[in-house]
Design goal:
383 residues; Inosine-uridine Nucleoside N-ribohydrolase, Chain A; 14 helices; globular
């Protein structure tokens, strides 16, 4: 585990930390925010990288998921003040409800399938400010929400910075789906989307078949994942392999300042009660290596066209990919579709064998897709 964390630190250095030779990565943090669980910890890392000019954090866009967006507004406004970035990093309120999935049907789903983490659906949406809970260190004192909606901010940011914006989407994908549907012209302009979502070879954490983020708004996930954009996916398979435990807590809480105090308030009682307590990293993990810059250091793509299949390189970081090695039969570049990913993962693991199992023959020479049109999907694995 320590070796894996060291490799994550290396990825921060070579991925997000662009160095002086390249411009800082432009990032939109699309999140179902909380004070100090996985989303909150991810923001702490991103805000520090922004302050060090290693990334340019354009804004934080909120979407109902872990909580209703009303509660997330309270927590996020205080978070940007706490980190001292409130003048540079705006908070944009987004979708309060999924596209189709609704609270009224949750009881029936629970009766049919059982339920793990229900997120906002554990209670109805708040109807008054008195139902909202202030962060442990109080409410924001001087920072309002930005006027634009989350979806409009995404659209405006991508148009203003074509091929430069990475969307770090660690909640339900409602905001991103609304942005894509309202302005389809941004699809080829998005640099990449990095996700925490899905459970491929393990059970889901909400139902036996569903990971929470994509369960909460499956229609939005379908819209976004089927768009021809570079996708980097951190599924539960890897996020539940890396834990926040007492050793990590002690390193953080030994420091001085508001962040250490917040960790002591949130996690101190839990570790006092049970020293073996731990939590999974979930949304915190994609904030580390989620922005690959160098093809020699990124995970290999799942699917995509032959043009990029020929450029696959084994990762040097311990993050593992499985790849079919060839695209499906047919003339031209065949784009990867999410529903094929599980089938690919169940094929023989040698890339050449998997390609033969899928297609019967090689078709790379027929690929005619262009650089920006290629639909590349990276799934981060664990070794």
């Amino acid at each position: 585990m320590q070796g894996f964390l060291k490799r994550c630190a290396l990825l921060v250095a070579v991925g997000l930390c662009a160095g002086t030779a390249q411009a800082a990565e432009k990032v939109i943090f699309d999140t179902d925010f909380n004070v100090l669980n996985d989303d909150g910890q991810a923001f702490i890392m991103l805000a520090q990288l922004h302050a060090q000019k290693r990334i340019e954090l354009l804004g934080m866009t909120l979407v109902s998921g872990n909580a209703w967006v009303d509660q997330e507004q309270v927590d996020a406004l205080k978070a940007v003040e706490r980190m001292g970035v409130e003048k540079e990093v705006g908070v944009y309120s987004g979708a309060a409800y999924p596209l189709l999935h609704d609270y009224a049907t949750f009881d029936a789903q629970q009766a049919l399938f059982g339920a793990g983490w229900p997120g906002a659906f554990k209670h109805p949406r708040p109807t008054s400010p008195s139902q909202l809970v202030a962060p442990p260190d109080g409410l924001a004192t001087h920072t309002p929400l930005r006027k634009e909606t989350a979806a409009q901010f995404i659209v405006d940011s991508v148009r203003a910075n074509p091929h430069q914006v990475t969307i770090l989407a660690v909640g339900p994908l409602t905001n991103v789906a609304l942005a894509i549907r309202s302005a389809p012209d941004i699809v080829p302009l998005i640099k990449r989307i990095v996700y925490m979502g899905g459970a491929l070879e393990i059970p889901g954490n909400t139902t036996p078949a569903a990971e929470f983020n994509w369960w909460f708004d499956p229609e939005a996930a379908k819209i976004v994942l089927r768009s021809p954009i570079e996708h980097v996916i951190f599924p539960n398979d890897v996020c539940e392999k890396v834990t926040f435990d007492k050793a990590v807590y002690q390193r953080v809480s030994a420091q001085k300042g508001p962040i250490a105090d917040l960790y002591k308030h949130e996690f101190g009682p839990l570790f006092d009660k049970d020293p073996s307590y731990h939590s999974f990293t979930w949304d915190s993990l994609p904030a580390l290596p989620g922005q690959p810059r160098d093809r020699h250091r990124v995970p290999r793509p799942v699917g995509g066209c032959g043009r990029h299949a020929r450029r696959r390189l084994r990762p040097r970081t311990g993050l593992r990919q499985r790849c079919p090695g060839r695209h499906a039969e047919g003339q031209g570049g065949v784009r990867c579709r999410p529903e094929k990913i599980l089938g690919w993962l169940r094929q023989p693991r040698d890339p050449a064998d998997a390609g033969q199992a899928l297609t019967g023959q090689r078709k790379d020479e027929h690929c005619t897709c262009g650089e920006r049109a290629c639909h590349r999907v990276y799934i981060v694995g664990y070794t």
